[in-house]
Amino acid sequence: MTAAHVQPTQANAAKQYEVRRADLPLSCPLPSMALWNSHPRVYMPIEAEGGQSDCPYCGAHFVLVG
Asked: How far apart are CA 26 and CA 52, in angstroms?
């Protein structure tokens, strides 16, 4: 029996992403994204930034919900 292969989402495809506390620590690209065509992974302190943070590489905007 084999596990189903899950296709990662395209990195940096959207300009705004909603993340939940379960997704922390926050990094861009997100762990569910493909890394081969993206910038190096960077971790961002979204909780210390009032629940919002921007990636210094690609400008993606992250909003903490929930």
From this structure: 11
